[in-house]
Design goal:
439 residues, alpha/beta, TIM Barrel, 16 strands, globular
Length: 439
């Protein structure tokens, strides 16, 4: 009994650490016109305005340009002087379980996956926890939006795009059910391992046969879903009904695939149903760039902070993958893959910064976590760049936001709302700095 009491106390302590700090209330709607003057404006679409201005009111951007050329009245607005600083569109974290997991060692705080293989009816949005302490740590690095994505199974369910300052999931949603997520049945790879000399698993199943069976099941499910979407139904099938958006074009299809063989198979599978997919992972996407470009495929590349997939690969290949795709004309999005931890999503801008050191410009790396990400999720008409008419979701940094030293977010706005940049990490830093007299 004492053993179980000790475990309970330990779990209570871990929960207390995560929830012991006061919640940070979401910001109120923008009430006055705001003009930011004098900063270097990185628009997110590849352009840079060295001495620029950004105007926004009622949550929308109403003016962007060169402050040395355009003259306008400043008396009817709140003016923020940002000389020597930088303005960026809010970064977007794709394919993340943010808000679905709080403490990995406490099962009750984990809600990112369901049992079963064909879980098309699962909606990650309704499990998104706006009271999580984690999103605030991302906002402090300029990540203001995220694609909340379910995990597990062959069909994991639908993701939704949220902004990271909200009272509840309804308030947070920017685009509900933006994409359906599939993990492509991976073909056997490598030499030796569990496959041994005969290519058999310890249980005796042929991995090639297992993969083909999984693809056949997926094909059957998609055929049934397509028929369901095209015919009038008297009885609702939740799993099949959830797929309708794929066939009427209102929803994207994200397919996780890494090897060149699987990438080609996944794209061709989707094309057979009239769908242009987004590939997630793409470790070997650089080997099939012509195919990807010809089929207008967007690739969401996992963090380059990893080892190469194949033993014969260049050890720096994960760093070069983004540049190889971009230089071949493929639209690239950079992610900090869900499997790498939800807390670590805050390092997304630095992952983009790493990519910029291996063959692409800083502005193209920025585009990979702003406008390109918005295009992949189907929200580029309203966000993803600093343009007139789009949401005023942006931030001011003292320096280069893709660099750990330069990323010092001083003010951030989500749909024009001036959000609180405090977070648990800052609170703990101050607490123990005060305790030990560290300045």
């Amino acid at each position: 009994m004492n053993k179980y009491i000790s475990i309970a106390i330990a779990l209570f302590a871990s929960v207390s650490i995560a929830y012991g700090q006061a919640n940070i209330s979401p910001a109120k709607a923008q009430s006055e016109k705001i003009i930011i003057m004098g900063a270097t404006v990185h628009t997110g679409d590849g352009k840079v305005i060295p001495n620029g201005y950004v105007i926004f009111e009622k949550g929308k951007i109403t003016g962007v340009g060169d402050a040395t050329v355009v003259k306008f009245a400043l008396t009817d607005a709140k003016v923020i002087t940002a000389n020597g600083k930088h303005i960026y569109p809010g970064f977007i974290s794709p394919v993340t379980e943010l808000g679905l997991v709080e403490i990995e060692s406490v099962k009750a705080t984990i809600d990112h996956s369901e049992l079963g293989d064909m879980n098309a009816h699962i909606r990650a949005l309704i499990a998104y926890n706006t009271d999580s302490k984690i999103p605030a740590t991302l906002r402090s690095n300029g990540i203001l939006m995220a694609q909340i994505t379910p995990q597990g199974g062959t069909i994991s369910g639908s993701s939704s795009v949220v902004q990271l300052d909200a009272w509840n999931w309804e308030d947070a949603a920017i685009k509900k059910e933006d994409a359906m997520h599939i993990s492509w049945p991976a073909s056997p790879r490598g030499r030796g391992g569990f496959g041994g000399l005969r290519g058999m698993t310890p249980g005796g199943a042929d991995p090639n046969e297992r993969t083909q069976n999984a693809i056949a099941d997926l094909n059957t499910f998609f055929n049934e879903a397509k028929i369901y979407a095209e015919t009038k139904q008297t009885v609702t099938n939740a799993r099949l009904a959830a797929m309708k958006g794929l066939f009427n074009g209102s929803q994207k299809l994200f397919i996780a695939a890494d090897s060149q063989k699987d990438i080609i198979a996944a794209v061709n599978f989707a094309k057979n149903f009239g769908i242009t997919p987004v590939i997630v992972g793409g470790d070997e996407a650089y080997l099939v760039t012509d195919f990807l470009k010809a089929n207008n495929i967007i690739v969401v590349v996992k963090t380059p902070h990893s080892l190469p997939t194949n033993v014969d690969d260049d050890v720096n290949m994960p760093y070069k993958n983004v540049a190889k795709l971009h230089n071949a004309g493929v639209t690239v999005v950079i992610s900090y893959a869900s499997s790498d931890g939800f807390w670590r999503q805050r390092s997304l801008p630095f992952v983009a910064g790493t990519a910029s050191a291996w063959g692409i410009s800083k502005e193209e790396a920025l585009k990979a976590i702003t406008l390109n990400a918005a295009k992949a999720m189907g929200i580029d008409k309203t966000t993803g760049s600093i343009e007139i008419g789009k949401d005023a979701t942006l931030f001011i940094s003292a320096g280069d936001a893709l660099d750990m030293i330069g990323n010092k977010v001083e003010q951030a706005f989500i749909q024009g709302r001036n959000i609180n940049l405090d977070n648990l990490h800052k609170q703990l830093d101050k607490k123990f700095s005060d305790k030990y007299g560290i300045k």
